[in-house]
Design brief:
mainly beta; 7-stranded mixed beta sheet; two-stranded antiparallel sheet; 6% helix; 34% strand; rod-shaped
Length: 180
Amino acid sequence: MTPMDRHPDRRSPLVFDTTELSRRAGTMREVGRTVPAPADLGLEVIAVPEGSDVELDLRLEAVVEGVLVTGTATVQLQGECARCLTGIEDEMSFDLQELFFHPGREVDEDERLVDDESIDLEPTLRDAVVMDLPFTPLCREDCLGLCPECGADLNDDPDHEHDLAVDPRWSKLVGLDVEE
C-alpha cells in the first residue's frame, strides 16, 4: 500500500470532509482553519516546528473529476543561516493546489483520491512546504558568513583580518633573526 492509498484518519485536523460537495460540479466551500504542524515538515536546516500553528485558507471545489483544493498555508519557520549559523525565525506562506480524484477513475500513482468522502491535505501541505523552502537559508541576503580560518562571525566584524599565513614548511624560521 502506497501513501496515496492509505485511508485518511478523520481525527486528523488536515482531513477534510467533502460530503456536502457530493459530486455536484460547481459546488464550492471556503475553509479557514488553524491546525498544528505535522512532524518533520521541512529540511534539516530550516523547518516548521512540530505542533506550531499552520493557518490554512482554502477553497474546496467540486469538479467533474473530483475535488479541487486551492489556497494558502501560512507557517512559522525555524532554522539556521547556512553561512553564519545564526538562528532564523520567519513566517512564510505557501500556495496549495491539488486535485483529489473520485474513486473509480484511473489515476497515476502520485495523484490523490477522495476516500470515503474525505481528503487528506497533509501530503499536499508537505509537498508545497518542502519544495519551496530555501535549500540554503540565509539570515539576510548580504550575510558575510564565518571566517574560514578562525570561525569568527564576519557580520559582527566585517574588517576581520589575520596576519599573513606562513607556509607550515617555513614556520620554524619565523622566529629567527636574519642579518642582511
